[in-house]
User: Which sequence fits this backbone?
C-alpha cells in the first residue's frame, strides 16, 4: 500500500505534549514535520481502533422493577416491603412488582385482585406515569453520555452501541459498570445490564442476573452462552413457534441451534432461518437511536470576560476542535452551525447558518463560527460564554453531497489526519495534540 505523508503544516502545526497539562511540569516538543516514529505510532493506534471497531459491542440496560422502584425511591419507608404498582380499580392489572412482592408470586400483568390474594400485606400503589417519565429521561441522559447510539425500547430499557466509545471510555464491560454506578448514585435506582455483540444476546444477558445484574458475553461466546438457556428466553419467538418447537423436543436454545436449517425452513418457512440464526446468536440489527434530539456541541464559560478579538477567536477554535472531535467520535456530521454568545450582562444571542454539506471538520466549523461571531456584538460587549453546536446531523457514512470546488483528494487527506489526531488524543488525553494557535493560548494561562 502506498503511504503518503500528510502535509500537516497546511492545516495544523502538530505539537505533541508528553505530559498531561494537569501533571505539573509541561514539556513541549514542537514537531512541525512529525517524525517517522510518531507517524507509525499514530498509524498503529488508528489501526487498532479500526480493528476493534469491527467487533460490535452492545449494552442492554433494563431498570429493576422500574415503577415499583421509583415509588420506593420517593417513599424510602417502603424499602424492603412488597410494593405493587398498578390497577386503579380492582379489575386492573399489576404494572410492576418489587422483588419482595415477586416472592409472593406477584408479577406484571397479573390481575390486582389476584395479587391482593397472593400478597395481602403488599403495599398497593397507583401508577404515576408522569413521575416515571421524568426519571426515565434522567436515566437516558446518563446512557447518552457514553454514546449517541441509544435506542430506548421503553421508559426503563435501552440498547447502547458502544463500539465506537471504547477508545475514550474503555471496554464495554467497564462502560456498563460505570453506567450502573451512575444510575445508583445520581438517581438512586438499580439497573441490570447485558453486554454482548448483538442486540438479541445483550437483551437476554441483561435479564439473567436481575436485579442489579451484570452479564458479559465475550465476543464469539454467543452460541455457548445461549446453549443451555430455555427456549423461552429467546425473545422474538412467539408462543406458537415455542409450542411447535416444544413438540419437536426442543427445550433449550442449544437444541434449536442443532436442528438443521432445512428442517426449520420446512416447518416455519422464512421464520425458520430467523430461528436458526437467533439460536446461534446471529443478529445484525443496528441500534437505532431516536433522531429528534440530535445536536452535538460544546460551550465554555470563561473565568474572565473576553473582549480581545484574538482571545475570542482562540476560544472559538478550541470549541470547534472539541465539537469536531465529538462529531467524529460519534460518527456524525452536522449541517447547521449555531453559535451562542452570552455577554457580561447575561444577555444571550444565537446565530445559525446552514452549510451546503454536513461537516465534522473543525477548520470549517471554526470558519463558520467566526462569520457568525461577526454578526454579534462580541468584542464591543465583553463575552462571558461562547458555545458552538451542530445540528441537522447525518451519519458520517451517509453519502455526502459532492463539493464541486474542493478536490476530493484533499478531503481524504484531511479525514486521515483527523483519524490519526483523534486516535492520539483518545489515547493520551484530549489536549495531547492541539492546533498551534491553541498552544500559544495554553502558554499564557
Ligand atoms: N409495565 C407495565 N405492564 C406490564 C409490564 C411492564 O405497565 N405488563 C411497566 C411497569 C414496569 C415497566 O413497564 O416497571 C418496565 O417493565 P419491565 O418488564 O422492565 O419490568 P420491571 O422493570 O418492573 O421489572 P424487571 O425489569 O426488574 O423485571
Ligand atoms: Mg425493567
Assistant:
Amino acid at each position: 500500500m502506498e503511504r503518503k505523508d500528510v502535509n500537516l503544516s497546511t492545516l495544523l502545526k502538530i505539537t505533541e505534549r508528553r505530559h498531561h497539562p494537569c501533571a505539573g511540569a509541561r514539556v513541549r516538543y514542537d514537531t512541525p514535520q512529525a517524525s517517522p516514529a510518531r507517524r507509525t505510532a499514530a498509524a498503529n493506534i488508528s489501526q487498532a481502533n479500526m480493528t476493534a471497531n469491527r467487533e460490535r459491542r452492545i449494552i442492554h440496560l433494563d431498570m429493576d422493577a422500574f415503577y415499583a422502584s421509583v415509588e420506593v425511591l420517593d417513599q424510602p419507608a417502603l424499602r424492603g416491603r412488597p410494593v405493587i404498582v398498578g390497577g386503579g380499580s380492582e379489575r386492573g392489572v399489576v404494572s410492576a412488582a418489587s422483588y419482595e412482592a415477586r416472592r409472593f408470586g406477584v408479577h406484571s400483568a397479573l390481575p390486582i385482585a389476584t395479587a391482593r390474594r397472593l400478597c395481602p400485606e403488599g403495599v398497593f400503589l397507583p401508577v404515576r406515569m408522569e413521575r416515571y417519565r421524568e426519571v426515565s429521561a434522567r436515566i437516558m441522559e446518563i446512557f447518552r453520555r457514553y454514546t449517541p447510539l441509544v435506542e430506548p425500547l421503553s421508559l426503563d430499557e435501552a440498547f447502547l452501541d458502544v463500539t465506537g466509545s471504547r477508545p475514550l471510555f474503555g471496554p464495554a464491560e467497564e462502560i456498563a459498570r460505570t453506567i450502573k454506578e451512575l444510575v445508583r448514585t445520581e438517581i438512586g435506582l438499580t439497573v441490570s445490564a447485558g453486554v454482548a455483540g448483538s442486540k438479541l444476546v445483550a437483551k437476554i444477558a441483561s435479564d439473567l442476573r436481575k436485579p442489579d445484574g451484570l452479564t458479559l458475553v465475550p465476543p464469539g461466546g454467543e452460541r455457548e452462552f445461549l446453549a443451555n438457556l430455555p427456549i423461552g428466553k429467546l425473545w422474538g419467538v412467539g408462543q406458537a413457534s415455542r409450542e411447535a418447537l416444544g413438540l419437536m423436543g426442543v427445550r433449550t436454545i442449544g437444541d434449536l441451534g442443532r436442528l438443521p436449517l432445512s428442517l426449520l425452513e420446512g416447518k416455519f418457512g422464512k421464520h425458520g432461518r430467523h430461528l436458526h440464526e437467533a439460536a446461534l446468536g446471529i443478529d445484525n440489527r443496528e441500534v437505532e437511536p431516536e433522531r429528534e434530539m440530535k445536536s452535538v456541541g460544546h460551550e465554555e464559560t470563561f473565568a474572565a470576560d473576553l473582549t480581545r478579538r484574538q482571545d475570542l477567536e482562540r476560544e472559538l477554535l478550541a470549541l470547534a476542535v472539541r465539537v469536531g472531535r465529538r462529531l467524529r467520535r460519534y460518527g456524525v456530521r452536522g449541517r447547521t452551525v449555531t453559535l451562542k454568545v452570552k455577554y457580561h450582562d447575561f444577555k444571550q444571542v444565537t446565530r445559525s447558518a446552514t452549510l451546503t454539506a454536513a461537516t465534522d471538520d473543525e477548520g470549517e466549523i471554526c470558519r463558520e463560527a467566526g462569520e457568525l461571531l461577526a454578526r454579534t456584538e462580541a468584542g464591543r460587549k465583553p463575552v462571558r460564554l461562547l458555545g458552538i453546536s451542530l445540528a441537522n446531523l447525518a451519519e458520517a457514512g451517509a453519502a455526502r453531497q459532492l463539493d464541486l470546488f474542493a478536490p476530493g483528494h484533499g478531503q481524504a487527506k484531511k479525514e486521515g489526519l483527523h483519524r490519526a489526531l483523534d486516535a492520539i488524543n483518545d489515547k493520551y488525553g484530549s489536549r495531547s495534540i492541539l492546533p498551534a494557535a491553541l498552544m500559544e493560548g495554553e502558554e499564557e494561562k
About this structure: The chain has a mean pLDDT of 81. Residues 223-279 form a domain with the DNA polymerase; domain 1 fold (CATH 1.10.150.20). The two ends are 44 Å apart (CA to CA). The pocket of 2'-deoxycytidine-5'-triphosphate (ligand 1) is lined by residues 62-67, 95-96, 108-109, 154, 156-157, 210-211 (CB under 6 Å).
